[in-house]
Amino acid sequence: MVVDLIGSCRAFVGVSETGSFTAGAAVAGIPQPVASRRIAALERHLGERLFDRATRRAQLTPFGRDLLPSARRLVHLADAMEHDAKRAKLRPLRLAVPGTCPTRDLAELDAEARALGIFLEFRPAPPGERAELVRTQDVRAALVAVPETDAVWTVPLGVAATERQQLPPVVHLETLRAGRATKAERRRVWIQPEDDVPHLRDRVFRVRDAVGLQPAQVSVADSLTAAAAAVYGSADLLLCSPAQATELGLGWRPLGDAPLARGFDIAATLGEDAHHLRTRLRSGIARCLGAPDEENV
């Protein structure tokens, strides 16, 4: 017969401290008959009586007095382990995310994760830093930028401008090429920091050069705020996702020269964390990234 050593010791300690099987069972949080059975099983396991049952009060035998300190230590260790386990479950999963993720969407993702017993703590960071934060264990996981072909989540990119620009249904970068006779300021396409990664930036630069734009006409902005400000105050365009364009109050159009998309995957120190984020929280993360509905499957 297998003895529940911790449960039996808990009943043993409870009865010894109260001097009553009934009161001791209440302290241990179990019915009195269960406490009696557990103590009897412990006595059989140890080969000696723990209590003198000849008296009305639950009185320890000499053997019971000798075993009581060890039983208390075992119960305390079990309680400490349960406490540590609860704390470990509440330990937040620090997740590095793009700075483009809206606060509301992150809050909804956090609430969704808590319902699954996962506690998230977000750390916004540029794309070049997020994987490094995982490597240095400053975070447990990160949404890292990857080529579209390697991505779990993809976010289409195009260009956006103020509504007064009246963009065509599809924008071609060659239309930004100014004739030699014009003295008007050349329009620019601004690349925000989130898209300042080789598989996106270099592709846009190659299109720029192929259609004959000036190098400065496709530039990387210091921040999304700076890029949006330039677009608000001019005829410039912002390379962005449809969700970002809506958030900024801009009109969005796809690029005809080169279909572009951000790609994201999970980098994590533990495979279990990566699995939970890719599967159980897939839809919530897609919402934060601005991925279209068909990605949320």
From TrEMBL:
Q: Which UniProt keywords apply?
A: Transcription, Transcription regulation
Homology family? Belongs to the LysR transcriptional regulatory family.
Which SUPFAM superfamilies does the annotation name? Winged helix' DNA-binding domain
Question: What is the protein's name according to its record?
Answer: LysR family transcriptional regulator
> Domain HTH lysR-type: where?
10-61
User: Transcription regulation: is it a keyword of this entry?
Assistant: yes
Tree of life domain = Bacteria
| Gene Ontology molecular function terms on file | DNA-binding transcription factor activity; transcription cis-regulatory region binding
Keyword Transcription regulation, does the record have it? yes
* InterPro entries for this protein: LysR_HTH_N, WH-like_DNA-bd_sf, WH_DNA-bd_sf
